[in-house]
Amino acid sequence: MKYKTAPTKMYYSISEVSELTGVKPHVLRYWETEFPSLKPKKNRAGNRNYRSKDIKSVLVIRDLLYKDKFTINGARKKLQEHYGNPEPLLNQMQIPFSDPHARALLLGIRKELEQLQKMLVEEGEKKGK
pTM higher than 0.90 for the full model? Predict the structure, then answer.
């Protein structure tokens, strides 16, 4: 079975970013109000267009808040130390799956494995009856 990687995109929708990072869209919108480094562009319709830089910022913020247990103020200060550029922090924290395309590929493989597992369980139940 061959897996295709998604073509490199310039912009990602909020739902795509949510799926890639595991952060719900309403949380992403809230973080925009709290973190100056997270400012996705908006199109004419007002929809958010996230760039790779924005996705990296989301990953850093997510890990500062959820993994390292910073408060929002603490995470904001930590990001400000790096002048709004999350790249040094991203490298320092060694965030796995920071490449959105690799993460999307792995999530797709995971879904297929879960479906396969479900099919095997159902087959086992049929044979056991």
Answer: no
